[in-house]
Design a protein that fits this description.
The complex is a heterodimer.
Chain A (H helix, E strand, L loop, with lengths): L10 E7 L3 H9 L7 E7 L6 E5 L2 E5 L1 H4 L2 E3 L2 H7 L3
Antiparallel strand pairs in A: 1-2, 1-5, 2-3, 3-4
Chain B lengths: L1 H9 L15 E5 L6 H9 L16 E6 L5 E6 L11 H11 L10 E7 L3 H12 L5 E6 L1 H6 L6 H8 L3 E3 L8 H10 L15 H14 L9 H10 L4 H19 L1 H22 L4 H18 L2 H17 L1 H15 L4 H9 L4 H7 L6 H10 L8 H12 L12 H25 L11 E4 L7 H33 L16 H13 L6 H9 L6 H12 L7 H9 L2 H13 L4 H11 L3 H29 L1
Parallel strand pairs in B: 1-3, 1-4, 4-5, 5-6
Antiparallel strand pairs in B: 2-3
Chain lengths: 83, 632
């Protein structure tokens, strides 16, 4: 499951960033770290780009990037979540 | 930059330097984007510098002198906002290089002022790891104390300072609270940090875990999410209401520029006329009076009249930036930008280009993709900058009667102005499309935009910026435009024929104008406009002063005014052609210089100048023909 598939208001825990190194690094600096919970916020009129609530801040991403950000399967989510 | 570095070194005279403890002399101000870094910098130095509630707007470091208690002085360097010190963009490169002391023009800082947002401490402490690892004396400033308390967050500053091994202080830069402590620290000197532990700074997940531990150790409780931001986004990012608000904001800005500025402009204009008659009454009829009234006052006065409009534009831009709405506008605009191959980050520089292309070209440094960046630089001058406003306002007012189009909401003149803004935007879009599908083709750009919480714009910050703008505009009126006005007056009064003044057409200026006339005749421009086009190569608004001077000398200025004179000399088709010419042409030496510096050579600015010039000529020709055909 990827970040792009989450509905507005939905949430998930990050697993991997399947992106070029520089981009992944930038995302991690903005708070997109494996194990972090992301909540989907509002977006541009047609739902792209969307705002993601992560680690205390709000970051807008395009759908093509969100498609490469993978989430943990639902079962594993509860215990490993970060504070 | 180099002379600033020079004054930085020279500022505290050797006698003032205390021998007992190392008083920091050069202090780097470092922090993530949107941490209130620039606001604090302004508070400490009183030096005006752009602050915006928008990530990455500070692209150049600024230098200011801090006023400190006692006889101490410190030189502060405001560095670009960064999340880490691994250089990946040009912003980060500047910050990294200054802190490491490897920039030739800036001395290695003696100390660091690290600004972090206390409402988002967990993530912002990640930067602290990299900065503390530098081993420079560091003071940790935790900003937004008011928001932290207001939203129910908590933090034990003393415990945090102990874990970081560096002094820490909780402040509110916006309200000016806690600044005395910062000043005392700066005056008294700060030691080298001794953190209890530091993670490997290149490992972001490790750094974040470390930050979480440090936060826990300092009993940090993150504040509740900003309620008002969520509420406002429910409207501003609503699928239907969002775009409507976006359009309404843009229309309101342009309508205000025309209607609300009117009484102010009339006031300035009457002041100029009054000064003219005052000088005429004082001076005997001589060449001195002619130079003062017809040359200087007519030239400079006709440009100064537009100061209220320009300030209103900057007021709106400042409000949008500082309130945080600009980031939402960028989000809404991203799809449109993507369609021409650009991205939301190009929207920031392009929007500032509506004020002036020079800061816009500098603001492109936040775009990491080099090709996206070059494309943005190349299209930025198509955006209707404030220097075009005087030209547009003059020609529109001369040829278009004011009538309501949509009740009180939109008049004909504001609509025409909006149309010209749209024309420039269209040219930019088409050009971007061309560039991005040919010489500047690149992979689909990544779009990452942090949305700041909404905040009340601070009148103080906006007032400082408007004051700065007015100063720049008036300085230009007092130098470039004054110089051109005087030079033009002289050229229009020589050569003398048997001691008598020549007719305007026979003067040197007239000769030059008539020499270029055949080239611009197809556009419907006469030789007077020709002189204006030549002088406006320096800066667009100069043409207004030039025409003011030229018509002023014909003795028409006092009786019928510049607008009537234009109506006499230009057909409606030629007037539209003139507007189109100014919408497209790159008549601005400052922009050309900025593009050369930022692209590292003459290749891009040359191409840009030729492209925009050709487009202007062809566009004006076509517009003239179409309008003339429609009217006849």
């Amino acid at each position: 499951m990827t970040l792009a598939e989450l509905p507005t208001g939905g949430s998930g825990v990050l697993e991997t960033l399947d992106l070029p190194e520089g981009l992944a690094f930038r995302l991690m600096e903005l708070g997109f770290l494996p194990g972090t919970r992301v909540v989907v916020g509002r977006g541009a009129p047609r739902g792209d780009p969307r705002v993601y609530l992560v680690d205390g801040s709000e970051v807008a991403l395009r759908r093509e990037m969100a498609l490469n950000i993978h989430l943990r399967p639902k079962e594993a989510r509860e215990e490993e979540e970060k504070p | 930059m180099s002379d600033c570095a020079g004054c930085a070194l020279a500022s505290p005279s050797p006698r003032d330097l205390p021998l007992s403890f190392p008083s920091p002399r050069t202090i780097a101000v470092v922090g993530p984007p949107n941490s209130g870094k620039s606001t604090l910098f302004n508070r400490l130095t009183g030096l005006r510098q752009k602050v915006a509630n928008y990530p990455g707007v500070t692209v150049e470091h600024r230098i200011g002198h801090a006023r400190l208690p006692g006889a101490h002085a410190a030189v502060l360097i405001d560095l670009p906002g960064v999340y880490g010190l691994t250089p990946r963009s040009e912003d980060e490169q500047v910050t990294h290089d200054v802190l490491k002391g490897i920039r030739p023009d800036i001395p290695k800082p003696d100390a660091v002022l690290l600004i972090l947002d206390a409402t988002n401490l967990g993530r912002h402490l990640v930067l602290a790891a990299s900065v503390l690892a530098l081993g420079l004396p560091t003071l940790v400033v935790l900003n937004m104390a008011d928001e932290l308390a207001g939203r129910g967050g908590e933090l034990d500053v003393a415990a945090l300072a102990k874990q970081l091994g560096a002094p820490a202080v909780l402040v509110s830069a916006a309200r000016g609270e806690g600044l005395e402590t910062v000043q005392q620290f700066l005056a008294g000197g700060v030691g080298v940090p001794t953190p209890l532990e530091l993670p490997a700074v290149s490992d972001v997940p490790r750094c974040r875990q470390w930050a979480a531990r440090v936060g826990d150790g300092a009993s940090y409780r993150a504040p509740a999410p900003p309620l008002w931001t969520r509420r406002l986004d429910r409207v501003f990012l609503h699928p239907v209401a969002g775009p409507l608000v976006f359009v309404a904001v843009v229309v309101a800005v342009f309508q205000t520029i025309f209607s609300a500025a009117r009484p102010l402009m009339d006031a300035v204009a009457s002041a100029v006329t009054l000064a003219g008659s005052g000088i005429s009454a004082l001076l005997p009829d001589s060449w001195v009076r002619s130079l003062a009234v017809d040359g200087i006052l007519a030239g400079v006065g006709s440009v100064v009249v537009f100061l209220p409009q320009i300030l209103i534009l900057f007021l709106f831009l400042g409000l949008l930036e500082d309130s945080g709405y600009l980031a939402r506008a960028a989000l809404i605009a991203d799809r449109t930008m993507a369609r021409v191959g650009l991205q939301g980050k190009s929207f920031i520089p392009l929007l500032s280009a509506y004020a002036c292309a020079v800061p816009a070209v500098l603001a492109t440094r936040t775009i990491e993709n080099k090709r996206d960046r070059t494309a943005t630089i190349l299209i930025a001058p198509f955006m209707t900058c404030s220097a075009r406003l005087p030209v547009y306002a003059l020609v529109i007012a001369a040829f278009l009667p004011e009538r309501p189009l949509l009740g009180v909401l939109l008049g004909t003149r504001a609509a025409a102005l909006l149309g010209l803004y749209a024309l420039g935007f269209l040219a930019a879009v088409v050009t971007a499309r061309l560039l991005k599908s040919s010489i500047l083709k690149s992979e689909p750009g990544a779009f990452l935009l942090e949305m700041p919480p909404y905040r009340w714009p601070m009148p103080r910050q906006i007032a400082l910026r408007l004051f700065d703008r007015a100063k720049i505009f008036l300085r230009r009126a007092g130098t470039v435009i004054l110089g051109v006005s005087v030079g033009l007056w002289v050229l229009a009064h020589v050569p003398l024929h048997n001691g008598d003044l020549p007719a305007l057409t026979e003067s040197v200026a007239g000769t030059v104008g008539r020499a270029v006339e055949p080239v611009i005749r197809p556009l419907g421009f006469d030789w007077k406009i020709g002189i204006g086009l030549i002088t406006s190569l320096a800066a667009r608004e100069v043409i207004v002063g030039t025409l003011g001077t030229l018509y002023g000398m014909e003795g028409t200025s006092e009786s019928v005014g510049l607008q009537a004179a234009l109506r006499h000399d230009l057909t409606p088709g030629a007037a539209v052609g003139l507007l189109v010419f100014f919408a497209f042409a790159m008549q601005c030496m400052s922009t050309i210089a900025a593009v050369r510096r930022e692209t590292g050579g003459w290749r891009w600015p040359t191409l840009q100048f030729a492209y925009m010039g050709t487009l202007a000529y062809v566009g004006a020709f076509v517009a003239n023909r179409i309008v003339t055909f429609l009217i006849s």
